[in-house]
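Components:
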Amino acid sequence: MSVRSDRDLGRLIFETGAPESACVLPPQPDVPETDLASVFGDAVRADAPHLPHVTEVEIARHYERLAGLNFGVDSGFYPLGSCTMKYNPRIGERACRLDGFAGIHPYQPARSVQGALRLMHDLQEALAEISGLPAVTLQPAAGAHGELTGLMVIRAYHESRGDARRRVLVPDSAHGTNPATVAMCGYEVTQVPSDERGGVDVDALKSALGPDVAAIMLTNPNTLGLFDENILEITRLVHEAGALAYYDGANLNAIMGKVRPGDMGFDAVHINLHKTFGTPHGGGGPGAGPVCVSAALAEFLPTPVVVADGSGYALARPARSIGRMRSFAGNFGVLVRAYAYIRAVGGDGLVEVSEQAVVSANYLMARLKDVFDVPYERSCMHEFVASGARFRKSYGVRTLDIAKRLLDFGVHPPTVYFPLIVDEAIMIEPTETESLETLDAFVEAMLAIATEAEQDPERLHGAPYTTPVRRLDEARAVKEPDVAWRPASEARADA
Amino acid sequence: MRFVPVTCEQRERMLAVIGVRSVDELFAPIPAQARLDRPIALPDGLSEVELAAELEALSNENASGLVSFAGAGCYDHYVPAIVDAVLSKPAFFTAYTPYQPEVSQGTLQAIYEYQSMVCALTGMDVANASVYDGATALTEAALMAARVTKRHRVVVSETVHPEWREVLRTYARGGTIEVVEAPARDGVTDPDALRELAEGAAAVLVASPNFFGCVEDVRLACTRAHEAGALAVVAANPIMLGVMEAPGALGADIVVGEGQPLGNPMSFGGPGLGLFAARSEFLRQMPGRIVGRTVDVEGRPGFVLTMQTREQHIRREKATSNICSNHSLNALAAAVYLSAVGARGLAGIARACIAKAHYLHDALVATGRFERFSDAPFAHEFALRYDGDVQAMREALLDRGYVAGVDAGGFDDRLAGVVIFAVTEKRTKAQIDAFVKEVASL
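Structure:
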């Protein structure tokens, strides 16, 4: 990424172009105009909204310039732990833009959308096989949305049995969305500590369990990148207490074809299609978070699910459905990409993906562990957590400084300060789509930065140096919020 | 297809560095009893040429390119070519959530501009980076109103899209809010019922144009909400905001909507784009991501994700919502779309939709097969009662290349026989005339 002229930095599209400019004109009217006052009464818009005045070339250049300020998977290595930033195959991009997928309305008669329904049905089946859980909803729009869906299904299950439960257990290594989801669902969170091997502390779990526990939410491999060896005992204890086990599928990329959440004893799982199946993260979305559940939970899934009735496919409402989590049937465009990915690599390919993701992560861990402490030094799955604590103690260099310095090496920093239970955490996930050459270059960069920390810590405190902008004043953004542009005549009138 | 660049020989070298003899050793922590003891039952991978053919074939099993009069939350508007040109840039679509602002200024600035445009359209001070869709935006607004007012009950008009209301009720099962519905009278919210129900409520939620396409008295609904100490939440169609007064100017405290009409394909209803905007006093109560403008250490302008103390990765169970993503690419599409059409273009598109809808409405009524469902004014969508079997009518017209509106009876038995038609700027007079002729011939 090159440094550009500062002149245009931060220049908004509102500050480009000239009044009267616009490139897409509305079609010439071919029917009589309708009097707007007859439609909106006195609520006809008085002042035109302040939208940009630009021509197409100005739009093209504006966004080309913005694109140049961005880092994506195509820009370089993106080892973001727990986020699985793998390559996004282009066949999926092309597929979701086909007219037969992009140009269909959700309320078209079912017989006119059999291809879309078949794709969804086959994707449901594939996810059921991968998760080991037979019933699937494709509706959730994101992983966190899937969590909420899964927990609501679990709540409905308990309620249907007249069993009011009010607590959900969450390990201290959990994703932040887990406790937030629990609260949204009206449950209380009970945190379960990790043991010295990085797994769930089984004794602590036993004392936390009780007749008022609805579920446990955990991911395995967990956010330390470790597979919990006690998983079968954990799910057994949970079930003995009458609770259910929810699997956060964020880390599914490590285990496809090796072990399935259903076979580990989980009752519900969400799958981040954008992580595991190579659909783009899109700068924050859209993703998709389908949920797979056991047979006992199937009738509570949100509506609709896709069913096959011999002659074709249809949308159906599960018998005791919790309702709906969003309008229509899900983020269909994302489902098309995930389907394309699964068909592209196939069953064997999914196993290879997991194996290589795990090999690559262990390779990086092996090469970095002497310089960056690894608090739980066991073979990891597709990611591992290192600690930068020694650099803080010895040289006053924080993990954030290391992360920012990596930007100067053309690498997107790993996830930092997560999970919360590791001091100065650096969480690294290479994924399977990185070459050995890239992995080695990353190791060299990390080692160079470690040397710099020792010899010239100030250099790290000031990093990055080569990015389009340098460290940003986040405190000012909070204290003096500026979250929308207004023309000078109106600016900050409300501040 | 394979997307793994590491060769077998390289893999062996990597295993040696790790200090294991085989890949299996790395999976040793998985208990034997839990392992999948057979190959995963999925077909083998395909070559790209085979996969492309399969995907083409699947897409061809769908009837696209129909002359569509279906709306009800998903609309067949024209998408300018520049929109997909921008969306297809890998620097946008292969990027992650912009947690590292130094290398994410493209995404961050684009979202800031999007937020600004949403504020301009809705007449609000602040907007978030989007949520999943209109239905989840409405629901998040209800949850936010409950937080702000410390009240429990929200009142939603029966004229709001039935699926949106169902999402609201589903979220309410957690017990954080209680939902009551305000009845409709002649296709619009009954203002007298609203007055009664709003008492003690956290929010009054209305949509205009509503599910039936009818234009609501937004000003009156907001007044009713405020008289009762509730927040006024208005769901708006963003295309109609080109000509319709901004809800902010009519008294709304929170404005939500489905942003799909702004440059996003119908795509069988997803992904959508949840528009969410509010008055500035509620900035810290808003769900979802928010981008703010600031400066870097050298004083240069730049953008960051801000107000993150509301969010799940800091507040965990006390977070304002569990949302940790937005529909960023869809928001980008909306921003490019609004830049391409500008205020004049948007108003022109809105006027074209409205004019064509009224033309179709009158022509359908003139066939004698339809009766008005409501006497309330409508914009680019309207409901009519059909004198025959709605399903049969839609099926027959499908064979002739049309999506003949949406069957409202599919949502609510009380609406059996009611069809909702939407008309966009893509429909020509000739298409409308031909459609009406087909309808009349049934």
